[in-house]
Design goal:
CATH topology: OB fold (Dihydrolipoamide Acetyltransferase, E2P)
CATH architecture: Beta Barrel
Order of helices and strands: HEEEEEEEE
Number of domains: 1
Amino acid sequence: MTERRAAAAERSAGDRYVASFLAERVGAEFKGRINGVTRAGLFVTLDETGADGFIPMRSLGDDFYIHDESRHCLRGRRTGRVYTLGDSVTARLSEADTVTGSLQFTLVGNGPGGGKAPKSAPHHGRRRR
């Protein structure tokens, strides 16, 4: 039990340190990867620092996103835009809370979101030569 408490304290201190370091860079854009998908939003890990943060559902654009738990993705009902576990994204730091060590982001690129656009239907016509 003591070892678990020590590990949790170490993680918490590391999170607060990273949030303190990044607090001066609010508004900056970072490359990262989606490491978690929930009905509330996306969790992302930054490539540069390894910091973890959250992208709330409300910042994904003007669509209603459906959480597909079995496929680990969010899919836009209107646009078909998909955010999947492991996708590379560009995220803008919108908030760094040094007390809790939490980071909040918004997505950058590909319109209001940043996910993959839906695949178009295959073309079954003749090829031109």
